[in-house]
Amino acid sequence: MLAASIRRASSQVKRSALGGFRALSTESSFTVTLPEGTYETYQLDAPDANVELSKEKLIQMYKDMVTVRRLEMAADALYKSKKIRGFCHLSNGQEAVAVGMEHAIDRDDSVITSYRCHGFAYMRGASIKAVLGELLGKRCGVSYGKGGSMHMFTHGFYGGTGIVGAQVPVGAGLAFAHKYSGQTDKANFALYGDGASNQGQIFESYNMAKLWNLPCVFICENNKYGMGTSAGRSSALTKYYQRGQFIPGLKVNGMDVVAVYQASKFAKAWTTAGNGPLVIEFETYRYGGHSMSDPGTTYRTREEIQHMRSSNDPIAGLKTRLINFGISTEAELKQIDKEIRRVVDKEAAEADASAPPEADPKILFEDVYVPGTEIPVLRGRIPEENWSFAKQ
Ligand SMILES: Cc1ncc(C[n+]2csc(CCOP(=O)(O)OP(=O)(O)O)c2C)c(N)n1
Ligand SMILES: [Mg+2]
């Protein structure tokens, strides 16, 4: 996978889409050639294996993946010190998906995913402090400390969904909203796991999205396990990119951030060109257990995890590329790692020191309705708990 070549593009001459020739102009522009085996297709022509990227973008992708990993490591430590409680699902190993995708799409595209959402929330614009603050149940959290690990939202990011698969029809609905409101250059990216992929609602969403030609990219993050169940034990067909039947599909090496970037860019262009939905399978791997209560080693071997870490790690993969092609030195990348660690530690400490939400019922009823659209009274469990918006 790391055999991909990055060639300095300054001296390169390339055929443009118009059929003429153009020299890539800047010294800092690179063409990454993705290795064979990066893609598998279903009723689709594969995206270009040559990916043009600036040096700055490649370095930013590296910084973003390191940040997401550090963020998850900080969450892990805070959980183990019992400052974070409840559900918490980390994405160590899967960073290339959130990072590569965000670099390829626009802020006004919509994204919705499962509970393994911290990296997406960060990439969609939530600060490190806001993500960790949310996990800590603090007022500075991205959902004001009321959502926790699975319920984070920012502009263009619709969660963070605890119910397996439930985000997929909502994603199709968001795609419908893009189309209905005439946002012809916007698409929805609806992510779900291999464990969600056999649910009826996934296929119902496929059907409606195809029927109505919606700009929806269905993305199966296949990390090989749904809790402790391996994909082959739950799915009659583990080629998740082929499961749209009447929807074309693309399987991508989800441990390669450049491949994820290129596939996401391709998907956005493809679906907003009026071709309807697309199914993508990002083949990836989570290093940790399903959640904090799962050591993650009872249904897979330590050797398997070690092998994925040492031969497929998305951060190490990009690091090798950056070094091999003279974009950064090992020492520069080490310095970046150190600085990111410092920033994450600082924001974690700030989030930890922040105040919890005020112990006042009004906090509970905030953000239930868009201001100005509230119903007069919201019923509580008992009449004494009824909340009158009208009286506020
Ligand atoms: C409707 C529903 N059924 C069961 C669960 C319990 N549950 C939580 S995560 C999970 C496995 C999902 O695996 P996958 O979709 O592969 O996502 P991953 O955890 O691998 O990211 C299950 C069964 C749930 N949250 N919602
Ligand atoms: Mg899974």
Automatic annotation (TrEMBL):
GO terms for molecular function: pyruvate dehydrogenase (acetyl-transferring) activity. Keywords: Oxidoreductase, Pyruvate, Thiamine pyrophosphate. GO terms for biological process: pyruvate decarboxylation to acetyl-CoA. Pfam families: E1_dh (PF00676). NCBIfam families: PDH_E1_alph_y (TIGR03182). PANTHER family: PYRUVATE DEHYDROGENASE E1 COMPONENT SUBUNIT ALPHA (PTHR11516:SF60), PYRUVATE DEHYDROGENASE E1 COMPONENT, ALPHA SUBUNIT BACTERIAL AND ORGANELLAR (PTHR11516). This is Pyruvate dehydrogenase E1 component subunit alpha.
